Amino acid sequence: MKLTNRSKVVSDKNMTMKERLYLPAIATGMGITFMHLFKKSVTVEYPAQQRPFADVYRGHHVLKRDEQGRERCTACGLCALACPAEAITMTAAEREPGEEHLYREEKYAKVYEINMLRCIFCGLCEEACPKEAIFLTKRIVHAEYEREDFVYGKDKLVESADSDKRIDVSIRQTPQVLEFKKDNTKRHNK
Amino acid sequence: MPIVTIDNHTIEVPEGTTILEAARKIGGDIVPPTMCYYSKLKGSGGKCRTCLVKVSQGSAKDPRPMPKLVASCSTPVADGMVVQNITSPEVLEARKAIVEFLLINHPLDCPVCDQAGECDLQNLSYEHGANTERYEEDRREYDKVDIGPNIQLHMNRCILCYRCVYTANQIANSRVHGVLYRGDQAEISTYIQNAIDNEFSGNVIDVCPVGALTDKTFRFKSRVWFLKPMNAHRNCTKCSGKVVVWKFGNEIYRVTARKDQFHEVEEFICNDCRYDHKQPEDWTIEGPAKLSKQSVISQNQYGNLKKPSIILPIEHRTEKQE
Questions:
Q1: Residues B238/B270, Cβ–Cβ less than 8 Å
Q2: Taking the domains of chain B in order of start, what are their residue ranges?
Q3: Which pTM does this prediction carry?
Q4: Which among A93, A130, A183 has the least Cβ separation from residue B220?
Q5: Which residues of A touch B295 (CB under 8 A)?
Q6: How far is A174 from A151, CA to CA, in rounded Å?
Q7: What is the set of domains in chain A, with CATH numbers?
Q8: Which pLDDT does position B194 carry in this prediction?
């Protein structure tokens, strides 16, 4: 059965004298190696130098806070439901009186974990989120030595409440989203 | 016995049957949705207007159509009656308007609400409602009320279907639950917040079509679609003991009554079964509970999986010829 035309017929004929010397073959190989000295390097010196990212690059997630510094996530579980890799788990808790400055809704995520080894960075969690809480950013998920360290909890996911340390996700909001937000007949937008 | 035609399906039903019950006997898509009617509760129905249908021929004797859309849950059939439900655009348009009315005072807090995923109003509005709203005023707001130690009332979400009131009236001997005030101000109340101490009071949670009455022992524990509903039973002296346990791993998060295809409780269960027996060894598991294929709860669970018939078993497949 022949599927492609690229297959080669294998033969076991004896090598010639020139081939058995190997010297010409070594010279050709060295020539190719030497030629690369004058070619443009294909690698970059990573931490000092960085390649440009695409605008839509999807990396390390962020759990956003609202303008008043309250966590937006309400632990509705839609991100975990949408996640094709089943990387997200959460435990909800009820907001106590006096915690209104910390959490936006009466329910919040006490535990929110993303397993970065499972995550495939598809962005469906971001798409499913009804509260604009989770976004994927351009930050890179760092290498770790232990598997447990890849399970990111709220300490690594929730952004800082300081207004100057906020993570900008405006690039993730397409013109269609901004147009949708102007529509006041949708209850979310009020 | 009267013969009635509903959306071109003809059926013979006993005298006094309502149009809705006749439609349920036929089954399928032509069954009008209900938010307040509950076949197990005497006197329920006629409040939400979701089940409106068009009667295009009153009866064989008097073939004139009824002048307005009628509530199918409280209109008895007549011989030779012709009813239109989903075949009438007028009915569908009216139903859409009803959904809009029901949603006027219903908050958009599905991400917070424990009922989300098994909520009748959510399903109804997804199916019939418009995705925008025209109502600009503020919605009515109430504080949460604890009715007894295990039930929480969120009056914000209530659509005043009166199902819980009928349940309390019918199952309990004493009247402990009712509706106070009128019109826009109407609210479910336990009359100065008396705790319901009847043994079957927990059933108001199951009959509530929205998240107004919720189980406090399950509050914010999990979302229903992360749990596995399993039919289970135990020897109970008060009720039949046939329930659905909602499991997460080996842990039982909550216990509810079994529901039929119209989301109605099959057998009411007692508070003992519902609140106090959450150990796996309390229950004999029968097997996974049946869910509708469209339900969000059946996401990622393959009990309902239908294998496409077009895939041949391996031994029947032949190698491709060149």
A1: yes
A2: 3-97, 106-131+138-220, 222-288
A3: 0.81
A4: A93
A5: none
A6: 29
A7: 61-189 (3.30.70.3270)
A8: 57
